[in-house]
Amino acid sequence: MLPFFDPLRQFTFGSLVLRLLLALASGGVIGYGRSKKNCAAGLRTYMLISLGAALSIAITLYEYQMLHSAWAETVAVVGEKFDASRLAAQAVTGIGFLGAGTILKVAHQQVKGLTTATGLFATVCMSLAAGAGFYECVLTVLLLTVLVLNVMSPLEILFKRRLRNITLNVEMNDVEDVSVITEAIEAQHAQIYEIDVERTKSPASAIFILQMSRSNSSHSGMLSAVAELGCVRSVQELIS
To answer: Which of these three, 121, 138, 158, is where a domain ends?
Structure first.
C-alpha cells in the first residue's frame, strides 16, 4: 500500500470524516453521470448509498475499537464475539433489493436498468473500501467505474452495430404483412431466428431477431431494405 495514506488509516474522528466525505464524493461523481442520462438512480441516490455503505464499515470499526477499550471489561465477562464482516455483508445484501427495483422490462422485449443495478453494487463496494480506509482501492475503482459507464458506452454501441446479429422492431399496416417483410429479409441472405408479432397494438408490429450473412452484414443496409417496403410504417434497430 502507498505510505502516503498511512497516517489516515488510523481510526480517528478526522479520518472518519475524510472517509465519509470520500465515499460521498465518489458516489456523487458516479451519480452525476447517471443523472445526466436520466437513469432511475441519480445523484442523490448514489450519494446516499455511498454514505450508508461507508457508515456501515465505520460502525464496524467503532465496535471493534470499543470492544478492546471501553467495553473490554464487559466483554471479558459476557464473552462477546466480534464479526467484522457482518454489517458489510448486510450492506451488500441490501443493495440487491434496490438494484432489483431499477431493473425493468420495457417494450419490445427489452430489459433496462441492469447497468444501473450493477453500478449501485460497485458503488457500495467502493464505499465499503472508503469506510475501511482503503484509499488506493477507492480512487482506482472510482476511475475505472467512471471509465466503464461513460467512455465504454458509445464503444459498446459501436461494437453491437458491427455484429451480424440484429433485432428489428417493425411497424406495419397489417399483421398479414409479416410474410412480405420476411421475404425481404431473406432476400438479404439473412437467417431469421424468431418473429414475435404484437397483435394487440395498432398499428401492428413485430420483433424480428435475425443473423445477417457474412457477405451482407450492414445494419443500415438491412434497415433500408425493410423500410423501403410499402407496407412498413417504421423500422428501428433495438440495441440493449
So the answer is: 158
Q: Are residues 139 and 202 part of one domain?
A: no
Full-model pTM: 0.70
Nearest to 12 by CA among 62, 85, 74: 62
From first to last of its 240 residues, the chain has per-residue pLDDT tens of 788 888 888 888 999 999 999 999 999 999 988 888 777 778 888 999 999 999 998 988 888 888 878 877 777 777 767 676 777 888 888 888 777 777 665 555 556 677 888 888 999 999 999 999 999 999 999 999 999 888 888 887 777 777 888 889 999 998 889 999 999 999 999 999 999 888 766 788 899 999 998 888 888 899 999 999 999 999 988 876
Residue 54's H or E segment, with its range, is helix 43-67
Q: Which residues of 113-149 are buried (b: 16+ CB within 10 A; e: fewer)?
A: bebbbbbbbbbbbbbbbbbbbbbebbbebbeebeeeb
Helix (H) or strand (E) holding 112: strand 111-112
Number of domains present in the structure of the chain: 2
Sheet holding 165-172, edge to edge: 191-198, 204-211, 165-172, 232-237
Q: Are residues 152 and 176 in the same domain?
A: no
77-102 in b/e form (b: 16+ CB < 10 A) is: eeeeeeeeeebbeebeeebeebbeeb
Residue at which a domain ends, from 117, 135, 158: 158
Domain, as residue range, for 91: 3-158
